[in-house]
Amino acid sequence: MSHRLEKSAGLKKSQLAHIRQLEQLCNQFEGLTMKLNWATLHTRPTNQVNDFLFYIGDKPVGYLALYVFNKRQAEVSAMIDPTYRQRGIFKQLLAAASSELEKRNIPDFLFICEQRSVSGTNTMKAIGAAHNFSEYKMDLKEATKATAKPELQIRPAYREDIADLVRMDEICFGVSPDISQTYFENNLSDLRRTLLMATIGSKPAGKIQVLIAEAETYISGFCMLPAYRGQGYGMAILTDTVHQLVTRGHQNITLEVEANNRSALSLYERCGFETTTAYDYYRLPVTKHR
Q1: What is the CATH number of the domain that holds 88?
Q2: What is the pLDDT of residues 11-54, one digit of tens each?
Q3: Number of structural domains in the chain
Q4: Report field, pTM of the whole predicted structure over 0.70
Q5: Spatial distance between the Cα atoms of 254 and 257, rounded to a whole number of angstroms
Q6: Domain of 241?
Q7: CA end-to-end span of the chain, whole Å?
Q8: In a shared domain, residues 9 and 75
Q9: Are residues 181 and 242 in the same domain?
């Protein structure tokens, strides 16, 4: 039976359906909540290879996705059909991804591995990837009352805000300005996303994004500039955002937070979120897989 590896710049509907099929199979096999960033997969650029699919005959049995948010590393999600593991499929996908990242001068992989995935953890050990940090996935269990801060204004972000949004991403998350600029230019008009700017007076203070996806509503990109932290503004933004979502009937509201960010974790817990799973991130130099 024929084997083939597809390197894809942008994803077709048929490929997305194959990825969904494989995700469901792998999640059921190990009881996982795999992190695949579906909103990103639906909006892949068509001038850049970020997705690698492996087929045996017409059956999708392997998939690797690259997510590049800065020039230092590419985050990676990967999965192999349980029936076809231990056959070198992941190794072939990884080699193809390595070649792509070398062309783009990106030095490191950052693999996303759910903590309870035995196969994923064993694979990280086998390839010599080093644990870098962990994140918790948190789901809203019970919304708390919105916190009032009269001097704080929360409004939709506009194209004239892009420079401020890019600056916030660089300061708060270390995202490369060119990548952030492209992201905001391409996504401000996405009807599934709501990007909100928080201001005090006329000065930008923070931002938060809401993505209405198929099964969940994601809160992401939430940050406050350093000058406005520790003053209750973050809680006011988050509780107001959650209140608006619940009022409009949205359920399954979720977010992610770095495990060692104790202040953010505490804030989310006070706003009614609970941890449901955890993801470990493993770093590996691309040059190890030339």
Answers
A1: 3.40.630.30
A2: 999 999 999 999 999 999 999 999 998 888 988 989 999 999 99
A3: 2
A4: yes
A5: 10
A6: 143-271
A7: 27
A8: yes
A9: yes
